[in-house]
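FAQ
Q: What does a multi-component entry look like?
A: The components come first, one per line:
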Amino acid sequence: MLDERKRNILKEIVDEYIATAEPVSSAVIVEKYESNISSATVRNDMAELEKLGYLEKTHASSGRVPSAKGYRMYVDELLKYDNISLEEIKYIQEKLENKADSIEELTKIATTTLSEITHYTTVSVGPKTSGQIIEEIKFVLLGNRMLMGIIVTDTGLVKETIIKFDEDITAEQVDTLNYYFNNKLQGEPIEKIDASLEEYIFRELKYSVKIIRPIIEQMKKLIQEEENIYLEGANKSFELPEFKSLELAKNFVNILDTKELMLDILNTGFAEDIQIYIGDENDNKDLKDFSVVTFKHSVGDKDLGTIGIIGPKRMNYSKVISVMKYISKKLNENDNFNKKD
Amino acid sequence: MLDERKRNILKEIVDEYIATAEPVSSAVIVEKYESNISSATVRNDMAELEKLGYLEKTHASSGRVPSAKGYRMYVDELLKYDNISLEEIKYIQEKLENKADSIEELTKIATTTLSEITHYTTVSVGPKTSGQIIEEIKFVLLGNRMLMGIIVTDTGLVKETIIKFDEDITAEQVDTLNYYFNNKLQGEPIEKIDASLEEYIFRELKYSVKIIRPIIEQMKKLIQEEENIYLEGANKSFELPEFKSLELAKNFVNILDTKELMLDILNTGFAEDIQIYIGDENDNKDLKDFSVVTFKHSVGDKDLGTIGIIGPKRMNYSKVISVMKYISKKLNENDNFNKKD
DNA sequence: TTTAGCACTCAATATTCTCGACTGCTAACA
DNA sequence: TGTTAGCAGTCGAGAATATTGAGTGCTAAA
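Then the predicted structure of the entire assembly, as tokens:
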């Protein structure tokens, strides 16, 4: 269907549009890329590419702009993802090495680094709590009327919460709590912290409701807790020419501000794969002028969080995806959090 | 200097400008507020008010707009701060009651509520760690090679960190750590966690550097940790007419994106007072078109965090400050975090 | 001190014009 | 059959101009 030259021209048009944000004319293609053929030939090919749905015009006598289908073809078949320099590799290595003390922090560092190198807005969420296996539960007495409840999971995730009481708690009570909770929950998925657990604890320990209830409540809250979204470089997007459109700028702020939407975007997609959503491929209409590229930080099938870039459809996919691939690889290699014991 | 009528007219002009975002003409003042006098009279007074620096014109034949000095006069002398309805009071009470399990969470809830009621963008930071008094330090063993270090301070603030080791830690070691750390630090300001502490621990405990060093490092990191900024309703600002100016919108995103600046704004100001910065009263030039209103959530002289509103200079100060005053009062009343023991 | 009245100012909007960057098409050419 | 030169036609962008009307300031009279 597409001969070599048309594929080249398509790629060149997308490259050029990504670089300049201006509709691309046959003349610049000849000038910059295809000095052997005439602009008329390019025009013929462009007309063809438009008929096939890869290109669009903004008006009858304008140059061409890639369509969503054009971007998709570009991303899937025309690009190579080795667009990363030695300096960038070094920089990433340095940033990711050793400095993080928790999975969440490592994810944050990676998110910041990604934004620094690509100059796009990046976002991330920590690991999903659901599905994780409880390795240890610990209650710690702080003062007389406060406990800290700590859950450690198999992926090295540590979650903790404060629990307050109206009466004093004794050290023995804490020991018993630790015993029964671990007895019941070690090796179990975190979802087991539920109503039936409450029953069990009530049955085994004869503590007052005033003690059991807040504990169960807080622990449930802890595992259901909405994940925190980490955002980096929102202002970088505002430097891009597409943000001259107030409409777009507003949509962008709306998107970033809507936690559910962000979580939704970040939580779809499979482990290790880089996911690319171009414009209206994402069915939220605020997103129609943006592209989102995400990947999961994971070990095996264990989700350790997701990192994403959000920017205009006219995004430098080559750079973005190249850098992501490298960071993704490094994150998995470097993973200190599971190789300890 | 300003007779009663001029003061009224000034207040009316600011009110009107806050409501409409359009320069205010002598005619509308007569129409809406001063039916007894003629527009010519109002014009004379306006000319006077302009000469005194309270009003400005956008061009020679335009209506008047408040100057920074005008806003200042308005805020300091012309407003009453009882602009809060029974429903709003109820709503705030409901939100602030009982639901928070930590100071930080309570501050977040207050921040969200403030944004919901005022429809402005709100921000907050948690309590400053520095200056707090250590009530208890606790190390908890998680697995064999991981500790959680927990600090509880006199204001009820709980900070915790994960510490990882390359060798196994024993329960006895943890006990000793707890003993020596508490021995040295209980009742001391949190800044005492420093180099001299490291020496002391080294001297008293003969543990290997491999154990002491990471602990001290993490604890130091914990108390120096940059406070988290909590942001709510950034998109609300973008609905305001001033954000039609791309310039302004960009500045706004820049401000919100610059953590140091936000922290700077939130950390100045004194306990309990409501601080108002109008336009260039704040010396950062990105802020020249915005106003910031902040207050501290505090108990006695103990800082529990700061909450602020950031919006256009043409802000509904009456509503904003009335609501803030009420929330501030409620936060201090409700304070569960110090009345326990 | 207040007011009616009028001349004047100036932003905002609409209107028209011009320019030139494009394309598509045709006809000739390799 | 694919390529190309050449030209007519399209249309957005920007400049130049005109029009409107919401304002003011000032003067002179009440």
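Q: Is there any commentary attached?
A: Sometimes. For this entry: DSSP finds 13 helices and ten strands in chain A.
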